[in-house]
C-alpha cells in the first residue's frame, strides 16, 4: 500500500514537472523569437549602414572621376599642379582590414567648453547651418571649387565643405559641417539617419583660417569612416605611419597636403579640439602637447606658424577616450619632400 502511494506521488510530481516545462516552453519560445528578430534586425541594420557608408566612399571617388572626365579638357589645374581622372583613380581606397566673417560668424562667438562628439543627436537637421561659401576672386584654383560643387550636387547637400582622403586607407569621404557637433554623428551625407554618421568638421571651425581644424568620424567596422585611424596607435603604428603619413584635404581654396606628426590615445580631459587661440603662443602650447603625446616619434617638427588638422574617433573601449591623429599643413614648396608614392602620383610630382 505504501509502495503504491509512493508511486502515485512520484507520478504526480512528474506530471507537475511536465506541465511546468511545457508552460516554460510556451513562455520562452516567444521570448526567444523576439530576441532572434531583434538580433537579426540589428545585424541587418548594421550591415546596411556599413554598405551605405562604403558606397558613399566609392561614390565620392566615382563622382570626382566623372567630374574630370566630363570636362572639355583633360585635366584640372590645382594650383601649380595638374590632377586628372586617372590620378584620382590611382588614389587607393584600401581594403585592409568665402567670406569667413559672414559664413562663420557664429563660430567666433562659440563657447569654448569641452565638446565630446558622443552625445545623442536630434532627429531633425539643425535650424542653422553654414551657408555655401562665396568664391573669392583671389581663389585661382577654380577646379577645387568645382569639385566641391560636384559633390554637393551628387549628395544634394550644401553642408559639404571639403573631401578627405588618406592614400592606402578606407578614408575617402566628403567632409560636412553643420550648426553643431551632434547632427552628423547619426546622419550620413544624404542627411539620412544612419549609425555610421559622416565625417564632419567642428561647427566652430573656419576651414580657411583656423589654426586647428577638427574632423570627427566614427570608429566603425572595417573599411568605413575613421576605422583605419586605429592602425596608427596599434603596435604596428610606426610601420603603418611610414606608408600612410599624409592626408589630402580638398577645400574650395584648393588641394592641401597635411603631414601627420602625432598619433595617440587620449582621454577627453585633454582638450585637443580647441579651435580658437589667444595668440600663436597659446596655439603652440597645444601643438607641443599633441606632439608629446605621440606614441612614436614621427620626426616631424611643429612650429607656432603651422596649422593643424586633427582627426578624432572613438576608441570603442571607453566612452571618454579617443584616438587622435594630428597633421600639419605642408607649404607647396615642401611637396617635393613627400615620400609616399601614391601621394606623389596624385599630385603628379614626378611628371
Description:
With 351 residues, the protein is of the alpha+beta class. It has one domain (39-347): Sortase (Sortase, Chain: A). Helices cover 35% and strands 17% of the residues. It is built from eight helices and ten strands. It has helices at 2-69, 85-90, 100-103, 105-108, 142-155, 237-243, 280-293, 341-347, and strands at residues 76-78, 81-83, 160-165, 172-176, 199-201, 212-216, 246-251, 254-267, 308-314, 321-329. Strands 3-4-5-6-9-10-8-7 form an eight-stranded mixed β-barrel, surrounded by four helices. The chain has a two-stranded antiparallel ribbon with strand order 1-2. β7 (246-251) and β8 form a beta hairpin. α1 runs antiparallel to α5 (142-155). The protein is elongated, with a radius of gyration of 26 Å. The termini are far apart. Residues 70-141 have low confidence and may be disordered.
Amino acid at each position: 500500500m505504501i509502495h503504491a502511494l509512493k508511486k502515485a506521488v512520484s507520478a504526480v510530481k512528474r506530471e507537475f514537472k511536465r506541465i511546468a516545462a511545457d508552460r516554460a516552453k510556451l513562455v520562452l519560445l516567444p521570448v526567444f523569437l523576439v530576441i532572434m528578430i531583434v538580433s537579426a534586425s540589428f545585424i541587418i541594420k548594421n550591415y546596411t549602414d556599413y554598405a551605405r557608408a562604403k558606397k558613399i566612399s566609392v561614390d565620392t571617388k566615382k563622382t570626382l572621376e566623372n567630374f574630370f572626365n566630363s570636362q572639355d579638357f583633360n585635366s584640372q589645374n590645382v594650383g601649380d599642379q595638374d590632377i586628372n581622372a586617372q590620378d584620382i583613380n590611382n588614389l587607393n581606397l584600401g581594403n585592409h582590414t568665402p567670406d569667413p566673417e559672414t559664413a562663420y560668424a557664429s563660430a567666433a562667438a562659440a563657447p569654448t567648453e569641452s565638446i565630446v562628439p558622443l552625445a545623442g543627436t536630434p532627429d531633425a537637421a539643425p535650424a542653422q547651418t553654414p551657408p555655401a561659401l562665396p568664391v573669392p576672386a583671389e581663389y585661382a584654383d577654380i577646379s577645387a571649387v568645382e569639385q566641391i560643387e560636384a559633390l554637393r550636387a551628387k549628395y544634394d547637400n550644401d553642408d559639404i565643405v571639403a573631401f578627405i582622403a588618406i592614400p592606402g586607407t578606407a578614408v575617402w569621404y566628403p567632409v560636412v559641417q553643420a550648426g553643431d557637433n551632434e547632427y552628423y554623428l547619426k546622419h550620413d551625407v544624404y542627411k539620412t539617419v544612419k549609425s555610421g554618421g559622416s565625417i564632419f568638421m567642428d561647427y566652430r571651425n573656419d576651414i580657411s583660417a583656423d589654426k586647428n581644424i577638427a574632423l570627427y568620424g566614427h570608429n566603425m567596422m572595417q573599411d568605413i569612416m575613421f576605422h583605419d585611424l586605429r592602425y596608427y596607435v596599434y603596435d604596428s603604428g610606426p610601420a603603418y605611419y611610414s606608408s600612410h603619413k599624409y592626408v589630402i584635404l580638398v577645400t574650395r581654396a584648393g588641394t592641401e597636403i597635411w603631414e601627420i606628426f602625432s598619433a595617440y590615445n587620449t582621454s577627453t580631459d585633454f582638450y585637443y579640439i580647441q579651435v580658437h587661440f589667444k595668440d600663436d603662443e597659446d596655439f603652440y602650447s597645444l601643438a607641443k602637447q599633441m606632439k608629446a603625446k605621440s606614441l612614436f616619434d614621427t620626426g616631424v617638427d611643429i612650429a607656432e606658424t603651422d596649422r593643424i588638422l586633427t582627426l578624432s574617433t572613438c576608441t570603442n573601449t571607453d566612452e571618454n577616450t579617443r584616438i587622435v591623429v594630428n597633421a600639419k599643413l605642408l607649404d607647396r614648396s615642401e611637396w617635393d619632400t613627400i615620400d609616399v608614392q601614391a601621394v606623389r602620383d596624385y599630385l603628379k610630382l614626378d611628371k
